[in-house]
Amino acid sequence: GAGVSQSPSNKVTEKGKDVELRCDPISGHTALYWYRQSLGQGLEFLIYFQGNSAPDKSGLPSDRFSAERTGGSVSTLTIQRTQQEDSAVYLCASSLVSGSGELFFGEGSRLTVL
Amino acid sequence: EDKVVQSPLSLVVHEGDTVTLNCSYEVTNFRSLLWYKQEKKAPTFLFMLTSSGIEKKSGRLSSILDKKELFSILNITATQTGDSAVYLCAVVDYGGSQGNLIFGKGTKLSVKP
């Protein structure tokens, strides 16, 4: 497709389980961002990838969170030993050029931890 | 610390009203300011502003940047219920954290019939 694709769109899991969220950015976009948005809250930055550079992981809330981007394209956000406070919508965005600011967002993955 | 502050946090108006949303910023290496509209999940891009005093316009929406006073406004005239959304402001801060992009917390606009 032409847009940013995220999967799954919804995920319900039990506390303590691991989850993987996937983001397929727009082809050719070198920059990829992950954000978290809790109900009624703003966007919380998690991690940023730019080409082959080391990612900016400064927003990851704990060492249970990790992300990788393979081949400069698809990215996976992994949350280990999920907690109820991890429940949120996880949004992925990509942009053609780093620092352009014009992000194209996916529809998000809604995570519910019971 | 770099920051982007939006006001008001929420706003309720009636159809036909005109609204002004505010975004002020303090960043080290300003590059541009962007506005996004978020209705359900995915924010969609509205405007990018780089130069002071040049209005960007799209239909009933318009925006302008003041780089001296470090703020931007987003105006919506003749509001419609379809304008109900969260409006996000973001600043591109070269060399900054968060992938060079800092978001405000958003303004939630509710337009009542």
Q: Overall mean pLDDT score of chain B?
A: 92
Beta fraction of chain A: over 45%
What is the element string of chain A, with H for helices and E for strands?
EEEEEEEEEE
Number of helical segments with 4 or more residues of chain A? 0
* Rg from Cα of chain B: 14 Å
Number of helical runs of chain B?
Answer: 0
Largest interface chains and counts: A-B, 25 and 24 residues
Q: What share of the residues of chain A lie within helices? A: under 10%
Protein architecture, described:
- The complex is a heterodimer of chains A (114) and B (113).
- Chain A is mostly beta strands and 114 residues long.
- Chain A has strands at 5-7, 10-13, 19-24, 31-37, 44-50, 65-69, 75-79, 88-95, 104-105, 109-113.
- Chain A has no helices and ten strands.
- In chain A, the strands form two sheets. In chain A, strands 2, 4, 5, 8, 9 and 10 form a six-stranded mixed sheet that branches. In chain A, strands 1-3-7-6 form a four-stranded antiparallel sheet, with no helix packed on it.
- The relative contact order of chain A is 0.33.
- The mean pLDDT of chain A is 92.
- With 113 residues, chain B is mainly β.
- Chain B is 0% helix and 58% strand.
- Chain B contains no helices and eleven strands.
- Chain B has strands spanning 3-7, 10-14, 19-26, 30-38, 44-49, 56-58, 61-66, 71-76, 85-93, 101-103, 107-112.
- The mean pLDDT of chain B is 92.
- The interface between A and B is medium-sized, with 25 and 24 residues.
Give the topology, please.
The complex is a heterodimer of chains A (114) and B (113).
Chain A lengths: L4 E3 L2 E4 L5 E6 L6 E7 L6 E7 L14 E5 L5 E5 L8 E8 L8 E2 L3 E5 L1
Chain B lengths: L2 E5 L2 E5 L4 E8 L3 E9 L5 E6 L6 E3 L2 E6 L4 E6 L8 E9 L7 E3 L3 E6 L1
Parallel strand pairs in B: 2-11
Antiparallel strand pairs in B: 1-3, 3-8, 4-5, 4-9, 6-7, 7-8, 9-10, 9-11
In short:
Chain A has 114 residues and is mainly beta. Chain A is built from no helices and ten strands.
